[in-house]
Amino acid sequence: MAREKNLPFETTLLVRDCCLCLHMQRAARNLARIFDEVLRPLDLTNGQFSLLMSLNRPEPPTMKDVASLLAMDRTTLTAALKPLERRDLVVIEPDPEDKRSRLLSLTPAGHRLLAQAFPLWQQTHEAIEKPFAPGEVDTLRAQLRALS
């Protein structure tokens, strides 16, 4: 049987230096750690903050709409909602117009926690953006939206 040839190490270096997915994952993990640390005193993760913020709407969204916004499948969203529901931050109710669908809304406690968390998010976001030249962060956001 012929021995398979291994990829050369130079290929590993090429992927390390060029892979958009790798660089996005690293940046996302770093940003997640920063925001997790800032939100920890409120017993929130960055993902929970994003989820709560996605529910801050005039009308309760459906699970489908929130899952789409957060690029999650509904099973993952359901799992993410459970601890927030246990903390009385979120309510999940049947949609009166479609009993198969669920509507998500913040409770008064969820609104209060989100109001506490937002200034922390805002200050941290400003600090992260500060080293960038004017317009660079807006360009980055546009490029990330194009990839998502």
Report on this model:
It is built from seven helices and two strands. It has a two-stranded antiparallel ribbon with strand order 1-2.
Please give a quick description of this structure:
By secondary structure, this protein is mainly alpha-helical. Helices cover 63% and strands 10% of the residues.
Top-tier CATH class of the domain at 48-122: Mainly Alpha
Mean pLDDT score? 95
Instruction: Give the biggest beta sheet.
Output: 2 strands, antiparallel
Low-confidence stretches: none
**What is the tally of beta strands?**
2
Relative strand content? 5-15%
Provide the structure class: mainly alpha
CATH topology of the domain at 48-122: Arc Repressor Mutant, subunit A
CATH superfamily descriptor of the domain at 48-122: Winged helix-like DNA-binding domain superfamily/Winged helix DNA-binding domain
Number of helices: 7
The CATH architecture term of the domain at 48-122 is Orthogonal Bundle
Helix content: 55-70%
Rg, please?
20 Å
Domain HTH marR-type: 17-148
Pfam family, one: MarR
GO molecular function, one term: DNA-binding transcription factor activity
Protein name: MarR family transcriptional regulator
